[in-house]
Design brief:
The complex is a heterodimer.
Chain A lengths: L14 H5 L4 H9 L8 H15 L3 E9 L5 E8 L3 H8 L7 H8 L4 E2 L8 H12 L4 E7 L8 E8 L10 H31 L3 H11 L4 H7 L4 H15 L4 H10 L4
Antiparallel strand pairs in A: 1-2, 1-5, 3-4, 4-5
Chain B lengths: L22 E4 L5 E8 L2 E10 L3 E9 L2 H9 L3 H4 L1 H17 L2
Antiparallel strand pairs in B: 1-2, 2-3, 3-4
Classes of the chains: A alpha+beta, B alpha+beta.
């Protein structure tokens, strides 16, 4: 394996020994603080690999999930592990059966994979595949969003050593991993938000319109608020829908909210 | 050679059509796209796939050597579904890894 993860794990010994070091949190924080300034995905992957290494993990992956509206969804993976894993995962279309993703969608607390129930045969197969690709011991760290949004991030840290994350050092790792997961999630959403604004040519006036829609305001009410006519509001919504590539104003407002525009 | 897997051309939402530095390879039907760039950490590869017209799956990773990159390419279904893209992917990736300073 030749991703940045190949350099991971030069800190030998147990998780407890590693987390007992006085500079454990500081060394991780040093890397995490660079994430908001990452120029692109390449730099983000490098930082993920380095932060994971300092935490004691051998491999790491960060997944960001967003449901744009009822008809579109996105999965974005930053991989500091063997990426062949994702080919297998995707080939079998396992998103719907992934117990780690399911956990992250409904929890905010980091958990060891051993603590996440694996019910069905397919869920078991997903977990076994992860084991095959270096996650013999794993920690799942959700990065949830507030306000009823679908977007969620999931950081997966893995070790080739069975039971590595089961020791008392887990509490210290959990704190550091949460920071990493949240920063990666925010960075990713920020990237997409910037792309949306630039590529779609969304203006401040468009955002005002979308905020009204999100609040459930009707055309007449928005027209009064913005001191214009209802037909003008309808035309403006049509243009915004076109810019965002969505079929209606509700979908436009949902997409704008999911990506943090409003 | 036309792609085997997809019958209907699918286009990503225009807002997500990104301008990237590096080399971009895209299938004619818009289902699969690769972006490759040489970085100081290795070869950066972004793989974007539109699944069934509703799910956009993006993988971003770095390779530090040709062996692992080629192993990853060979494990990709693109090898059979989009053979021309597969050949271009390997050629461009190897060249970028070879040229990396």
């Amino acid at each position: 394996m030749a991703t940045p993860s190949s350099a991971i794990a030069d800190d030998t010994g147990s998780l407890l020994a590693l987390t007992s070091r006085a500079d454990y949190a500081g060394r991780i924080s040093e890397v995490v603080q660079k994430i908001p300034r990452a120029d692109d995905e390449a730099e983000a992957v490098s930082l993920l690999a380095e932060a994971a290494r300092r935490m004691g993990a051998d491999v790491a992956a960060f997944v960001s999930f967003v449901r744009d509206d009822g008809s579109h969804e996105s999965y974005r993976f930053l991989l500091a592990c063997d990426p062949v894993w994702c080919h297998e995962y995707q080939r079998r279309a396992w998103y719907a059966h992934d117990p780690w993703l399911a956990y992250a969608l409904t929890h905010s607390e980091p958990a060891r994979a051993s603590e996440i129930p694996v019910g069905s045969k397919q869920q078991l197969a997903v977990a076994e595949l992860a084991t095959e690709f270096g996650f013999r011991s794993a920690v799942i760290v959700p990065a949830p969003s507030s306000g009823g949004l679908t977007r969620v991030g999931v950081l997966c840290l893995g070790s080739g050593t069975p039971g590595f994350f089961e020791s008392d050092g887990f509490v210290a790792l959990k704190v550091a991993a949460r920071g990493l997961a949240m920063e990666l999630h925010e960075w990713w959403i920020g990237q997409i938000k910037r792309e949306l604004i630039v590529n779609a040519g969304i203006t401040d006036d468009d955002l005002i319109l979308l905020r009204h829609e999100r609040l459930g305001h009707g055309t007449k009410m928005i027209a009064i608020e913005l001191n214009t006519t209802p037909s003008s509001i309808d035309s403006r919504f049509q243009r915004v829908n076109q810019k965002l590539g969505v079929p209606n104003r509700k979908a436009a407002a949902t997409l704008a909210a999911e990506y943090g525009l409003i | 050679m036309p792609p085997i897997a997809t019958k209907t051309p699918i286009r990503p939402r225009p807002v997500f059509a990104r301008k990237r530095r590096g080399t971009t390879l895209r299938s004619d039907d818009g289902v699969i796209e690769f972006t490759l760039a040489a970085t100081k950490s290795g070869l950066f590869v972004e793989r974007v796939e539109l699944r069934h017209g509703r799910a956009r799956v993006v993988h971003s990773t770095l390779f530090s050597d040709g062996r692992s990159f080629n192993r990853w390419c060979d494990a990709d279904a693109v090898r059979f579904d989009y053979p021309v893209i597969y050949v271009d992917l390997k050629r461009n990736g190897d060249a970028l890894l070879g040229n990396r300073g």
